[in-house]
Design brief:
Elements: H1 2-13, H2 32-53, E1 61-65, E2 71-74, H3 83-95, H4 98-111, H5 123-137, H6 141-155, E3 158-159, E4 164-165, E5 174-178, H7 185-195, H8 198-215, E6 225-229, E7 235-239, H9 251-268, H10 271-286, H11 312-327, H12 331-349, E8 368-371, E9 376-380, H13 383-397
Antiparallel strand pairs: 1-2, 3-4, 5-6, 6-7, 8-9
Length: 401
């Protein structure tokens, strides 16, 4: 009973949008020239995804391209499976294309069974980016139940002693948590608002607070992974898997942190999360290795800069987060974040990053870097780069003009 009262209090104060529904702030305005550029890019994206649909096997999800330019796909259990239907749904929202809608609904059917998958922490990516958007655009009881079951599966991976949701499965003595996991908490906040069960909310807040304590360096860059002692709950190692070095700043990891704590502020209105998100944004934007077009190198400390590879997935993710974050700030900070997002969007919309129609098998963006140390998905399109690119464009168009 106390849990439901607590959740009701949260709901009455903080009913805020998810996905691309950013609060419209009177001090934010979209630039007409960039809106026009985005309109053209969205129209092109719709056509490109109509082509993309024809390349993907009916029982698979697109993931990336291999070194020979051939499509790499996955089953529904891969962590990226929700991004393709999610991107389709964003494009349906923007274009009202019924062919894209049909494709999205067909892929959702393949994804349904993952609501009961307790072996992964990526259920926010998999289920909230897909069914969350589907439910936002056309609410249905079955969508709601799938999302609630997904939240329960995600919550099952929470450990009270550690104070976190387990990310990757490992040997019993280790408890691995990656910064990416911040992106899955939005599903838990949604579940509290929909069910009145505050346990989801409490898990999300506890995980976020533990991550603040152990993942961030004094300069507000973040480690990729913290390995906790499963028995004591204390950190025993901090390192990277996908970054250049243990003490480097893996670009997409900084983006996961920025986006994740922006969501934390949206959902709780606790200013410590806004302050942290601002610090992360400032670290990114003031970094001497951030290029002029503001699409980051795959790691801010990558060997070979300025000849190191860029990561369009980090750029699209950071741009989307900055647009929302700019709305929670006033004055110089708000303008700085929005100005940076505008540069990023202009860059991503250019032919430097956007794939021409009928190329890249149908992906929207080129030049993503998945895991360079692991020699996996290096300088190729990535399905999540497309998702956050379209989300960022819609968020920008949604600003009060």
């Amino acid at each position: 009973m106390k849990g439901r009262f607590f959740a009701g209090l949260i709901i009455s104060i903080f009913i805020l949008g998810t996905g691309c529904n950013v609060q419209k702030q009177p001090h934010l305005t979209a630039k007409k020239d960039l809106v026009k550029e985005i309109d053209n890019s969205i129209a092109q994206a719709g056509k490109q995804y109509k082509y993309f649909m024809q390349q993907i096997p009916a029982d698979k999800f697109p993931r990336s391209l291999d070194k020979d330019g051939k499509l790499v796909t996955s089953g529904s259990g891969w962590w990226c499976s929700g991004f393709y239907p999610g991107t389709l749904l964003y494009l349906v929202e923007a274009t009202n294309d019924q062919g894209l809608k049909t494709e999205a609904l067909n892929r959702l059917k393949l994804l349904e069974k993952e609501q009961f998958n307790k072996s992964t922490h990526d259920l926010g990516f998999m289920m909230f980016c897909s069914f969350g958007n589907a439910n936002r655009l056309a609410p249905k009881p079955e969508y709601k139940q799938i999302l609630i079951n997904s939240a329960r599966s995600l919550a099952s991976r929470f450990d009270e002693k550690v104070g976190c949701i387990r990310s990757w499965n490992s040997k019993p003595s280790d408890f691995l948590v990656i910064i990416d996991n911040m992106m899955n908490l939005e599903l838990l906040f949604w579940a509290t608002k929909e069910t009145g069960d505050s346990s989801f909310y409490k898990i999300a807040v506890t995980h976020a607070n533990t991550t603040i304590k152990n993942h961030f360096r004094p300069d507000y860059s973040t480690y990729h992974m913290v390995n906790y002692n499963a028995k004591t709950g204390l950190p025993q190692k901090k390192h990277t898997v996908q970054g250049a070095a243990d003490e480097s700043a893996w670009a997409r990891g900084q983006g996961w942190g920025l986006y994740g704590y922006t969501v934390m502020y949206r959902e709780t209105r606790d200013k410590k999360y806004l302050e942290l998100a601002n610090h992360i944004a400032d670290y990114i934007l003031k970094h001497p290795n951030l290029p002029a077009d503001k699409i980051p190198y795959w790691d801010f400390n990558a060997p070979g800069i300025p000849n190191a590879l860029r990561d369009a997935s980090a750029g699209s993710l950071i741009a989307s987060a900055l647009i929302e974050l700019s709305g929670y700030n006033q004055g110089k900070a708000s303008k700085t974040y929005l100005d940076a997002a505008e540069v990023m969007l202009h860059s991503l919309c250019s032919d430097v990053y956007t794939a021409p129609y009928g190329t890249s098998q149908g992906f929207l963006l080129n030049h993503g870097v998945g895991n360079l140390p692991g020699k996996s998905e290096v300088d190729v399109p990535l399905t999540y780069a497309d998702y956050y690119f379209v989300e960022a464009m819609l968020r920008y168009k949604n600003l009060k003009r």
